[in-house]
Write a structure and sequence with these properties.
single chain, mainly beta, 6-stranded mixed beta sheet
């Protein structure tokens, strides 16, 4: 028995060079000949051209939640799958959850205690993903995966560190949909008692860092009257003097910030309120 394993936030792609002459066939997360007990498999992206995208052969108390599995270099709509099956035909998989996943096929061959819900089995990846042929499985605006998942057992953040949910409900798949100009967004605290949330985001259009106020009705850029000040540090503790926070709609076109890809700490202050958050800046397109 292999127990208590977390497989979280991985990107597994069969090949990133389409014209490679001697490509092999790659399994994704394939666990055969169990028993596998208490595994969490969350927020993973798998692009492969074999049957096994995420597979467990003999699983107990496992969660396979919010993963995106997609075919690559093949027109076969049955590849790859997410599956939980029996061990050697006589030991049933049990008490497993397959939820909020995207895959060509979802196969739940466990016993009656296994749950299979809020998944999308699809044939046309272009209808769901931004650019699946190049391994970009971010959700496309308006696709059926947005706001269609279950919050029960869903990870609090997606594979890119974006908090869930961003809309009315949790999205299906490894990525939570956000505006395509936003690389990373995160609720980092309550700005006041009126239910407002403060978000710090990096906008790849112009490379600027923005601060937003989000309520249940709308999201808007912070302005001067909100009373927040911001300091940005890199992971070595050095203050990023070139990093300023846009405080108005007019600042949206400001491109003074020169934030290279990496991990930063943003500290926001408003009177006695002090909020710190980690910001992941990526050049992922």
């Amino acid at each position: 028995v292999v127990s208590h394993i977390r497989v979280v936030g991985n990107t597994i792609i069969n090949t990133v060079v389409p014209n490679q002459p001697f490509k092999g066939q790659l399994y994704g997360i394939a666990c055969f000949d169990g028993i596998y007990d208490d595994w969490y498999v969350e927020n993973n992206v798998v692009c492969a051209n074999t049957w096994y995208g995420i597979a467990f052969n003999g699983a107990r108390h496992c969660r396979i939640v919010n993963n995106s599995v997609c075919r690559l270099d093949t027109e076969n709509c049955t590849l790859p799958c997410i599956t939980v099956s029996d061990y050697q035909g006589n030991i049933k998989s049990s008490d497993c959850f397959l939820r909020n996943n995207i895959s060509s096929i979802i196969v739940n061959a466990g016993d009656s205690t296994c749950r299979n819900d809020h998944n999308i089995a699809f044939c046309n990846p272009d209808s769901l993903f931004t650019d699946y042929k190049n391994g970009n499985l971010r959700l496309k605006a308006g696709c059926m995966a947005i706001d269609s998942g279950s919050a029960d057992l869903a990870p609090a953040f997606d594979i890119a560190g974006v908090s869930r949910p961003q809309g009315k409900s949790v999205d299906i798949g490894a990525f939570e949909y956000v505006d395509p100009t936003i690389v990373a967004a995160k609720n980092i605290g309550v700005a006041d008692n009126g239910g407002k949330k403060l978000l710090i985001v990096h906008n790849r259009l112009g490379g600027t860092i923005r601060a937003y106020i989000r309520t249940s009705e709308s999201t808007r850029l912070i302005n001067e009257s909100d009373g927040f000040t911001f300091v940005v540090y890199d992971m070595h503790g050095r203050r990023c003097t070139g990093a300023t926070i846009g405080l108005s709609e007019n600042a949206r076109s400001d491109s003074k910030n020169n934030i290279t890809p990496g991990i930063y700490i943003v500290i926001a202050k408003n009177g006695s309120v002090r909020i710190a958050t980690q910001l992941v800046v990526s050049n992922y397109k």
